[in-house]
TrEMBL record:
The keyword S-adenosyl-L-methionine does not apply. It comes from Kroppenstedtia sanguinis. Belongs to the enoyl-CoA hydratase/isomerase family. InterPro entries: ClpP/crotonase-like_dom_sf, Enoyl-CoA_hyd/isom_CS, Enoyl-CoA_hydra/iso, Enoyl-CoA_hydra_C. This is Enoyl-CoA hydratase-related protein. Pfam families: ECH_1 (PF00378). The keyword Lyase applies.
Amino acid sequence: MKSDFLKVSTEKGVGRIRLHRPEVLNALNRQMVADLVEQLESWDRDEHIGAILLLGGPKAFAAGADIEEMAQATAVEMLRLDPFVDWDRIRKISKPIVAAVQGYALGGGCELALACDLILASESAQFGQPEINIGVMPGAGGTQRLTRAVGKARAMEMVLTGKPITAQEAFQAHLINRVVPEEALEEEATKLAEELASKPPVALRLAKQAVSKAAEVGLTEGLDYEQKLFYFLFSTEDQKEGMQAFSEKRRPTFRGK
Ligand code: DAK
């Protein structure tokens, strides 16, 4: 796919997208989000891709939605364009997405990282929801996913004051998986994505679905859902191969079947 705002490549089963609008700190305009969603969906259908890695630039993962583009929008235009639709499609991607965050992850940038499944951040990363300072509030999950991740007290402070938190604070608040040194971020994130891409694809996809479900439903419904997916995996060749390989003390070869 050709995009003016994304750099895209694939290697070792990992689809790699770099947000690339450095002159505005990767501010997310509508076209960029549309391109991103199209690429994610295309890899979701591609059996050669097992995991996706999303990167930004050294100064910013993304400093939010494009304020210039939104500034003159009316409520009716917002309703007509319904930008939530694209953001919602990110939620439906079934393969795991690893976000590698350096620098600013603000507003929509923070929400985009939160829409990913695993977040690695370098020491320079800052996570924040500063929308309040420009007269609005988070609109792509910042009040919901953030609150589920860090709890009400922390989320309330971030959303109402607009003040960002550091990578270390984000780690302590369970917002991200790891903080790594600046120069190691890309390599660590790539290694993690490659590791995910080597897992049995059907089990990986269903495991992601089941963990995501935990944020949406009560315990009983969640456990029922988990059990059904678990039983289903016994219909896959990969389950037979994985368990047989264990018994035979060899590495399994998974085929996504
Ligand atoms: N939009 C547009 N341009 C931006 C931008 C943004 N979000 N962030 C930075 N830029 C531009 C700056 O205007 C500047 O452009 P020039 O002046 O050079 O032309 C360039 O990037 C470099 O920025 P600065 O000169 O400001 O750089 P500094 O290092 O001094 O400051 C900063 C970095 C990140 C602290 C600052 O740029 C900043 O405060 N940026 C805005 C952060 C922000 O408020 N972000 C939240 C935006 S609102 C939705 C989905 C999502 C959203 C809404 C709806 N739906 C599905 C409906 C999300 C909303 C948001 O994210």
